[in-house]
């Protein structure tokens, strides 16, 4: 993945970029493990949502130093990481009609922590959670909130990257004959953030699970 994203290229001379001096908000279902050797004290936990293996994995992909294993160095091994987890969304439309404490966490990371970029590898997981299939492709409350944050609602325009979701594997919501198009689930269908899907790292072929658009209003996502 480092080779495919050209992280190796920009980290070598003459660029020699490591991410040092850049602060990234890692937003997930919990927080990363700050004591992991690969973070070298560069990861700070911002709330009490609890440690998450997935959040630790994502933070390592972004900024792990490769101390435990140089082969698994992150994309920006010098970056500063702020780790927050979603709380309060409950079962009432999580990340669709109920954004939980997302706005508070982003505000804290941006206004107090100096974050200039966020990665959020989480979503409503409509298929897995048994939510209403009509959510897929919809533009909900959380989508609008994220769009406002990107445009500067928290004091400055902000860059946000969001996972496109893993909804294409399901059979409950996917319409036969459409090969799981329209499977983007909230809040991956927001307009202003960068929605990223997944390919197989060995050959760039399409994965079997990564969600496909378009959204219900015809926009191309991811």
Describe the 3D structure.
This protein has 222 residues and is α/β, with parallel strands linked by helices. The protein has 5 helices and 6 strands. It has helices at 7-11, 53-63, 102-112, 126-129, 141-151, and strands at residues 23-28, 43-45, 80-85, 117-120, 159-163, 194-196. The protein has a 6-stranded parallel beta sheet, sandwiched between helices. Strand 2 (43-45), helix 2 (53-63) and strand 3 form a beta-alpha-beta unit. It starts with 6 loop residues before the first helix and ends in a 26-residue tail after the last strand.
Using brief descriptors, characterize the structure shown.
222 residues; alpha/beta; 6-stranded parallel sheet; 6 strands; 19% helix; 5 helices
Task: Please tally the β strands and state the result.
Answer: 6
Radius of gyration: 17 Å
Give, in order, the helices and strands. HEEHEHEHHEE
The spatial strand order of the largest sheet comes to 2-3-1-4-5-6
Strand content: 5-15%
State the share of residues found in helices, binned by percent: 10-25%
Report the biggest beta sheet as strand number plus sense, adding barrel if it closes.
6 strands, parallel
Query: Could you report the average pLDDT, rounded to the nearest whole number?
Result: 94
């Amino acid at each position: 993945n480092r080779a495919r994203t050209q992280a190796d290229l920009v980290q070598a001379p003459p660029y020699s970029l490591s991410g040092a001096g850049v602060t990234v908000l890692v937003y997930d279902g919990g927080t990363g493990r700050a004591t992991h050797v690969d973070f070298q004290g560069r990861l700070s936990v911002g709330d009490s949502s609890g440690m998450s293996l997935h959040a630790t994995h994502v933070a390592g992909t972004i900024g792990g130093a490769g101390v435990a294993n140089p082969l698994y160095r992150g994309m920006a091994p010098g970056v500063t990481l702020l780790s927050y987890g979603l709380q309060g969304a409950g079962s009432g439309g999580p990340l669709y009609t109920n954004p939980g404490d997302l706005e508070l966490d982003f505000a804290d990371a941006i206004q107090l922590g100096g974050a200039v970029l966020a990665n959020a590898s989480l979503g409503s997981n409509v298929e897995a959670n048994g939510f209403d299939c009509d959510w897929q492709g919809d533009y909900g409350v959380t989508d609008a909130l994220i769009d406002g944050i990107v445009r500067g609602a928290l004091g400055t325009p902000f860059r946000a990257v969001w996972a496109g979701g893993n909804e294409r594997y399901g059979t409950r919501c996917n319409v036969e004959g459409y090969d799981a198009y329209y499977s983007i689930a909230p809040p991956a269908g927001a307009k202003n953030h960068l929605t990223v899907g997944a390919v197989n790292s060995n050959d760039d072929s399409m994965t079997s699970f990564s969600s496909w658009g378009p959204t219900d209003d015809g926009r191309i996502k991811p």
